[in-house]
Amino acid sequence: GIEKFMREDDIKITTPGVALGLAYTTVGGEVLFIEATQYPGKGDFKLTGQLGDVMKESVSAALSVFKSKAADFDFDLEHLNNHDIHLHVPAGAIPKDGPSAGIAMFTAITSLLLNLPMKSGIAMTGEITLRGKVLPIGGVKEKTLAAARAGIKTVILPEDNRRDLEDIDPQVQKKLTFHFAADVSDVLTIAFGQPRLKAAIKKLKPHPRKATSEKK
Amino acid sequence: GIEKFMREDDIKITTPGVALGLAYTTVGGEVLFIEATQYPGKGDFKLTGQLGDVMKESVSAALSVFKSKAADFDFDLEHLNNHDIHLHVPAGAIPKDGPSAGIAMFTAITSLLLNLPMKSGIAMTGEITLRGKVLPIGGVKEKTLAAARAGIKTVILPEDNRRDLEDIDPQVQKKLTFHFAADVSDVLTIAFGQPRLKAAIKKLKPHPRKATSEKK
Amino acid sequence: GIEKFMREDDIKITTPGVALGLAYTTVGGEVLFIEATQYPGKGDFKLTGQLGDVMKESVSAALSVFKSKAADFDFDLEHLNNHDIHLHVPAGAIPKDGPSAGIAMFTAITSLLLNLPMKSGIAMTGEITLRGKVLPIGGVKEKTLAAARAGIKTVILPEDNRRDLEDIDPQVQKKLTFHFAADVSDVLTIAFGQPRLKAAIKKLKPHPRKATSEKK
Amino acid sequence: GIEKFMREDDIKITTPGVALGLAYTTVGGEVLFIEATQYPGKGDFKLTGQLGDVMKESVSAALSVFKSKAADFDFDLEHLNNHDIHLHVPAGAIPKDGPSAGIAMFTAITSLLLNLPMKSGIAMTGEITLRGKVLPIGGVKEKTLAAARAGIKTVILPEDNRRDLEDIDPQVQKKLTFHFAADVSDVLTIAFGQPRLKAAIKKLKPHPRKATSEKK
Amino acid sequence: GIEKFMREDDIKITTPGVALGLAYTTVGGEVLFIEATQYPGKGDFKLTGQLGDVMKESVSAALSVFKSKAADFDFDLEHLNNHDIHLHVPAGAIPKDGPSAGIAMFTAITSLLLNLPMKSGIAMTGEITLRGKVLPIGGVKEKTLAAARAGIKTVILPEDNRRDLEDIDPQVQKKLTFHFAADVSDVLTIAFGQPRLKAAIKKLKPHPRKATSEKK
Amino acid sequence: GIEKFMREDDIKITTPGVALGLAYTTVGGEVLFIEATQYPGKGDFKLTGQLGDVMKESVSAALSVFKSKAADFDFDLEHLNNHDIHLHVPAGAIPKDGPSAGIAMFTAITSLLLNLPMKSGIAMTGEITLRGKVLPIGGVKEKTLAAARAGIKTVILPEDNRRDLEDIDPQVQKKLTFHFAADVSDVLTIAFGQPRLKAAIKKLKPHPRKATSEKK
Ligand SMILES: [Ca+2]
Ligand SMILES: [Ca+2]
Ligand SMILES: [Ca+2]
Ligand SMILES: [Ca+2]
Ligand SMILES: [Ca+2]
Ligand SMILES: [Ca+2]
Ligand SMILES: [Ca+2]
Ligand SMILES: [Ca+2]
Ligand SMILES: [Ca+2]
Ligand SMILES: [Ca+2]
Ligand SMILES: [Ca+2]
Ligand SMILES: [Ca+2]
Prior knowledge:
The structure is a homohexamer.
Chain A: E1 18-25, E2 28-40, E3 45-48, H1 53-68, E4 83-88, H2 102-114, E5 122-124, E6 127-128, E7 134-135, H3 140-149, E8 154-158, H4 170-175, E9 177-181, H5 184-192, H6 194-204, H7 208-215
Parallel strand pairs in A: 3-4, 5-8, 8-9
Antiparallel strand pairs in A: 1-2, 2-4, 6-7
Helix pairs in contact in A: 1-2, 2-5, 5-6
């Protein structure tokens, strides 16, 4: 797993566009960095990190959820016509797949486009649907163990995985705070905090980006 | 099946763009959520959920049926040039195929574009043809059993599956009301109710969307 | 075969864009519905129904024959730049291939674009070439048997299959009228009738569609 | 082979865009119809007839040779921006491959675009290069036999196949006239006749097509 | 390996767009030339050298890191809309893969677009992430051996490979100076030198390129 | 090999866009004709002759080298936006691969775009890199033997293959003059002669092509 290379400062997130997901492979749980960035462009969406079909579709769904909620964020979708987005999941040589990084993908995209870094020390796992529901996932025990080992303090799980809490190792339970999310609005509240989120949305309103796009 | 994760409130549909289909796999019947959403864009149509070739073609036919009937709905097709549609069928990791979700796809698209949520508690199954005919499907017994277990109250079946009614478990028969559809207009009447459908079409006429597209 | 699901009223064609083809598989002959529809768009041509490479090329040839004869029909090809065409061959899950539906594809396209429904009770089989010639096909015996069973009254065969007439079951011969076509103009005469065809072409001349396209 | 279906009138070519090639398969020689047609469009080039990679590249080379010689023909290449070309090789279900139809492809394209039908009763075989050279091919014996059987009177062979003349059956030799071509200008002279070719080129100069394209 | 063909003057880099990477294959370490060039075009990005999926994604990440830092370089991204970039890794017949050339790709792109040749005698290895972090790589022993043999004087390694220093052959250690980079700004400082880098960025400000793009 | 079909006049090159390469297969050396042509178009680049991935990339590199040196040639790259280039390597049915035709590809493209035929009787082999370096290739013995047999008088080899001179058959050595190239400027000097090259570049300056493109 990548986490053996993680230094303490790695999980301190200070850049917008980054979220921490939790994956579950045959060799155990892993912390996944989701990195999203943007720059002026023609509206392309690039996706790298040896992602499988299911994970690619998961990102596609996450992006669509953001877009269909753009009005709620006072986010002008015109921005996406003159910027490219690139989402990458290191390490670059390790194939990754599955839908369970869905809410982390959504959080990374939202963080990027609202220009709002996630709160530090939070990792999350959960499938996202197009309506913004959070579907349950597997490997809760292994994922939370990996999170604890990597120094994560807070974990977001799907509401429907609440019943899996009892399987988590007591040592791990002590180290982590758990939040359960039924839909993506729950996720955003935990990942960003309601006041920070509101402030970021407020900032977006008379945004310089819009000026740029109108210039064009 | 996904339905083991469904909570009571899940089949209460309140969002436009959602329909419930019934699938039939080697392990029995299943309730499929069809989720469609839209947002300002360039007219792309995205399709996710690990759908096989036949199911993808089925969505394509469903969309074309809607488009060729757009005039009947007073729906301005220009709208689809400046909006993207995304249709997704969770759970994201489960491959799905076959033509039997055709009328559910059509209903989800119609619900989305007429901005009209389906009536709650209805699931449906049937292949759609480009003329809007509803072709018979297999697995009626298993599909209706899954519907009943998921708390569905009403099931729409193809007219040509009327003869399969006798194979359905009596317990299931008691829990469900059956409707038979020969073409998609029958489907819409049951799924939305004639008065609600007429009201939604009426609303579309002097629609703000049209204004947006003309602005462009 | 699909015909076991066909009800009496199914072969009564009242919509432009529909033609009946005859296919020949390892399990015998079959009646194929060819459904074509159109709607305002950007000139796309969609093709569904699990069609194999040869059948896809056959549709492509059929469309090109129509286009290269457009002037004869007083049909303004500009129309195809602002409309999409979708051609579908149910049942959606059954793979289909081969060139023998060529003239039925051509007839469906012509019916759609001239806005002229085929005469009822006619099915046809024959490969089409780019010059509009009709090439002979196999399975005449099985195809005509399937046509008779489905209630078809008239069958169009390639001129070069005239010699296969003697192989057809006498019972089937009694139920069917046979026409032989050497090129596509023979096909159109039988499928639409010369007076109806002329009237439809006449109608096309000062056509509202042209106005629409000029508006743009 | 397709030639068993050919009737006498089939090799009388009266349409521009048609040429007869000679193919060589494991079951012997065959006469190939090359059919090219055009219609107003956006400059697409369609290629059908179950052609293999080598034959597709051969058509591509043939088209490029025509284009690079367009000035010699007083042909305005602008025409190809507002017309589509479709080239088809029946029978549609038979896979075909190899470079030996190259000069027949070139002749069909030239016939189509100069609006000049080939002289009747001529078939040809030879690989074309981008400089317009004619490269030698195999199967001369089998191809000429097939030509003779199909009623062909004149055959064009590559200059470098002159040495294969001695292998041709004496009966076949009596029925056929042979021409040898070193480059495509030799081919055109034989296929169209110098005076007809010159007249066609002269006609192209103040051509109504040009008017159409300027209108746009 | 390619280095057996390298002559002394080969590692003297005088052209912008060239960087030296270090690869690690089953037969040992290798020095990779990364060559990037640009010319007026439509914004295409070409990638050659038989690169595998992971290496292609690595280049994509390197380019995105540059783009997301373009403002820091006073680089006008508009330039990339009217120029093509081509990145090639000789030798052309040898398949290459893996993420460890990431920072060399980034350096080649930066060198090209800032019009600033790398300092001579430096080779580097390290995976790049979208945030510009440098991830550790394998094969440090073999790569540094290859570098020393090719006459390289300075090697840049990821910060997290510092612990691998002890495995490097003492003879090799004597010949090479090692730098460790935690993120891409560390890489640029070593590869170009801070003063040269600042001077190059300063030069970009009132750049003739911008004039060209505005002309358009 | 194709050379058994070559007649004496074939290696007399009089057309711009043609170069002779040397290939090396399991059955020995071969002379390859590289044919490039151009015509008014939309800037497409077509590549035919059953070329493998490595050879295709080699052409791509050759084209980029030309483009990045266009200013040195006083060549206006705008020309490539309104012309198509087609590069073909006969014989069309023989698969070809490898990087060793790189400098011949570059020479053919340069010859075409500078409108300058190569000097006659010269063949060449060598991999090209994006910086215009010439990398060594294999099969020098077999390739030079094939060149001598085909009547070639002069062969260009990579500088780094100078050491392979001793392996060439003495008989072949007598028939051929050898030149060694370290980069593409060496190649051009030998292939065209410095005075002819300068004259061609001079001619390009006030070129009618530019007028054509501006007209547009
Ligand atoms: Ca898959
Ligand atoms: Ca709930
Ligand atoms: Ca399939
Ligand atoms: Ca009915
Ligand atoms: Ca095929
Ligand atoms: Ca006839
Ligand atoms: Ca091939
Ligand atoms: Ca000659
Ligand atoms: Ca892969
Ligand atoms: Ca650090
Ligand atoms: Ca390959
Ligand atoms: Ca040197």
